[in-house]
Here is the input.
Amino acid sequence: MFKFLKESIKEFDHVVWPTNKETKNYFISVTSIITVFALILFIIGTFFSYILFIAKEQVNPIKVTQSTLDTTVNSSWSTTNTKDVKIPTTTTK
Here is the structure.
């Protein structure tokens, strides 16, 4: 076990570590590529979402006219009768 650890530590001497300039270049290139891919995926996702909404409207269009709005509003108002509303009374001491 100790032999393995000693040899593992010796291997670190053979590793070529990147310089500060190389590390900055790698960082910039990786973040640039990730940003470009994220932007591309956003554009593709938005495009497919737009296409799906258009297809949905073609299959199942929602048609709202003024007459349907008027009947909806009138029917909701007609169900509410102010005579049926009871206001609770509380007494304070």
Summary: The chain has a mean pLDDT of 82. Helices lie at 2-11, 20-59, 66-78. Residues 20 and 26 are 10 Å apart (CA to CA). Residues 20-61 form one domain.
